[in-house]
Amino acid sequence: MTFVQAIRRAAIGLAATLLLTGAAWAGAPQVKTQAPGFYRVMLGDFEVTALSDGTVGLPVEQLLTNTTKAKVEAALKRAHLATPLETSVNGYLINTGAKLVLVDAGAGALFGPTLGGLVANLKAAGYQPEQVDEIYITHMHPDHVGGLAANGQAVFANAVVRADQHDADFWLSQANLDAAAKESKGFFQGAMASLKPYVDAGRFKAFDGDTELVPGVKAIAARGHTKGHSVYVAESKGQKLVLWGDLMHVAAVQFEQPSVTIAFDTDSKAAAAQRKKAYADAAKQGYIVGAAHLSFPGLGRLRAAGSGYSFTPLNYAVPR
Q1: Which domain holds residue 133?
Q2: Distance separating alpha carbons of residues 92 and 100, to the nearest angstrom
Q3: Please, what is the average pLDDT of the chain?
Q4: How far apart (Å, rounded) are the C-alpha atoms in residues 223 and 231?
Q5: Which of 6-20, 191-205, 266-280, 304-318 has the lowest mean pLDDT?
Q6: What is the pLDDT, as a whole number, of residue 319?
């Protein structure tokens, strides 16, 4: 008997055994996990790593404002989506070569079990929390600051945390917490608990408006979603990335209709104006944008499309 004949006979015997016993290869349990949530690109000499904190289902047809439920559902249907919409929460790590900068820290334990993965994904991406030098917060909502602390301790042991003074004055105010509606108190409590270890250690440094923070990375005021909402711009060797934070939330709706706002906005009119300005500038200049709630990794470019805009995700590539 030749080797090939032996292999064939063994295969026939195995198949017969499976048929007789009812066994099947498909009997293995489903794993239902993803690959580690990081995605890396080069921006000139800077290395940028998108970090997933996870996803959370949101009833966006109830949350979006300056529109109707029917219009939201129709826009989602055109994109083959439905509600509750599985919504990404993203952070971005920028290695300038001199500083390791994290933009937004995810939700930590503040938003339920499907979020809170940013630190694990940072480690999977080859870094440790103690290596982070600076953390820039777009605004102090819980899904952006919750990952800063765990059990009352700073997660990023050596980092300085920075955010706009207007956001700090609003969200870290005991008077504002006391005056807040019951359903809003958690936002204040989350911000206070998350920032406290850094404030106590003298490692929270607020800024006011447009500010260069480290060479090649600057904050730009984009107030409206919150009183001190900021976007962050990274530039190296003529390449530019603008990280929008929460200038937008639902791509399938707000790229086509930039005037659509969300219930979380402190000032919806100002938030819409900032979004329209950001969209127009990104489409005109062609730079890369990233946003906290664009589908992970949330990086791409805009172009004008009729009365709205079209978003093109970055082409997948291995950094060189």
Answers
A1: 38-106+114-138+155-163+208-313
A2: 11
A3: 93
A4: 9
A5: 6-20
A6: 84
